[in-house]
């Protein structure tokens, strides 16, 4: 279903979550009411020969990156299709956090759902194989300026136990670091010495750091062989927090996204600068909606992963955009 057939918003953006938002039983309630949810999962499952709905509902394999990524992408697109089916306003901009960038590109018609689930399944496999199990790690550093986190990463790397880099700039005072486990542990210790909070994340892959460069080189080949068009709704990409102006640039940014940091703080600032006041999180959970609520120019942020949340968001956005009184 093409988003361009629907009235375009002027103050609303959709954001799509990344890995970590998955939960067993996601979208079960909505699937009872909207046949399109199961149909979307069936379409995606046929493309990669895995029963993605079974994985989502049973939890079997849901913590394995190669399955997590296609399941989450499919859940996000199922919600997007339900939103449009119900007459929801098409947003002015789309953005996705890490994996969520692929969901945004499918929603914007740049990638087919089938091609996207194949890509992210491969992406997960390549990421997992790039670093041996237990060798990499990620941690959230809370309460420090970005520059200070970068400084601590440099200190930890200089200790010679491996490399660690800022991986996700999620919000002011919230940066995720990634790299070799010993170096990440060193940053955690340094952060605590600086009176910050540091939390080791339960992940099997150190995403968005230079350890992913071998995976990116292989992934670039798959991207070159995949049909990609310019999005029908502008998609703000993770790496530069900007909208790609041609397909080559879009592909390049998707490759770089594997080993460069997610510029989410800058992405949200870009949206605010474009007059966006309302954020809809299109996927399981409400992590991105909660981050958006902290921003000065965002009036409201809505998750839509349940019947009640979806109804609230639909009505609120229609009113906010002046479509209904």
UniProtKB/TrEMBL annotation:
Gene3D superfamilies linked: Malonyl-CoA ACP transacylase, ACP-binding (3.30.70.250), Malonyl-Coenzyme A Acyl Carrier Protein, domain 2 (3.40.366.10)
Record key words, sorted: Acyltransferase, Transferase
Record has Acyltransferase as a keyword: yes
Matching PANTHER family: MALONYL-COA-ACYL CARRIER PROTEIN TRANSACYLASE, MITOCHONDRIAL
Annotated EC: 2.3.1.39
Residue intervals of the Malonyl-CoA:ACP transacylase (MAT) domain: 15-299
Pfam families registered for this protein in UniProt: Acyl_transf_1
InterPro entries, A to Z: Ac_transferase_dom_sf, Acyl_transferase_dom, Acyl_Trfase/lysoPLipase, Mal-CoA-ACP_Trans/PKS_FabD, Malonyl_CoA-ACP_transAc, Malonyl_CoA-ACP_transAc_FabD, Malonyl_transacylase_ACP-bd
Cellular component per GO, a single term: cytosol
Keyword flag Acyltransferase: yes
Name of the protein in question: Malonyl CoA-acyl carrier protein transacylase
Location of the active site: 98, 208
Family per similarity comment: Belongs to the fabD family.
GO molecular function: [acyl-carrier-protein] S-malonyltransferase activity
Enzyme class: transferase
One biological process term in Gene Ontology: fatty acid biosynthetic process
């Amino acid at each position: 279903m093409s988003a361009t057939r629907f009235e375009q918003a002027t103050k609303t953006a959709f954001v799509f979550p990344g890995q970590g938002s998955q939960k067993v039983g996601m979208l079960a309630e909505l699937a009872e009411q909207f046949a399109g949810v199961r149909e979307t999962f069936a379409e995606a499952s046929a493309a990669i020969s895995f029963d993605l709905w079974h994985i989502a509902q049973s939890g079997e394999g849901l913590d394995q990156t190669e399955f997590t990524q296609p399941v989450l992408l499919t859940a996000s697109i199922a919600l997007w299709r339900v939103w449009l089916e119900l007459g929801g306003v098409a947003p002015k901009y789309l953005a996705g956090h890490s994996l969520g960038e692929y969901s945004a590109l499918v929603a914007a018609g740049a990638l087919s759902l089938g091609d996207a689930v194949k890509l992210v399944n491969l992406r997960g496999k390549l990421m997992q194989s790039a670093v041996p199990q237990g060798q990499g790690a990620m941690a959230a550093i809370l309460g420090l300026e970005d520059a200070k986190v970068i400084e601590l990463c440099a200190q930890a790397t200089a200790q010679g136990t491996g490399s660690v880099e800022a991986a996700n700039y999620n919000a002011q005072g919230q940066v995720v670091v990634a790299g070799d486990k010993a170096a990440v542990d060193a940053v955690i210790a340094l952060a605590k010495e600086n009176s910050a909070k540091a939390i080791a994340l339960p992940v099997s892959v150190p995403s968005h750091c230079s350890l992913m460069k071998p995976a990116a080189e292989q992934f670039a080949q798959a991207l070159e062989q995949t049909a990609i068009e310019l999005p029908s709704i502008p998609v703000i990409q993770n790496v530069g927090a900007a909208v790609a102006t041609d397909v080559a640039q879009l592909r390049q940014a998707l490759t770089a996204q594997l080993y460069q940091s997610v510029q989410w703080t800058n992405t949200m600032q870009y949206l605010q600068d474009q007059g966006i006041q309302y954020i809809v999180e299109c996927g399981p959970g409400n992590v991105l909606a909660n981050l958006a609520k902290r921003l000065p120019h965002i009036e409201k942020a809505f998750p839509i992963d349940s019947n009640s949340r979806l109804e609230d968001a639909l009505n609120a956005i229609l009113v906010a955009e002046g479509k209904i009184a």
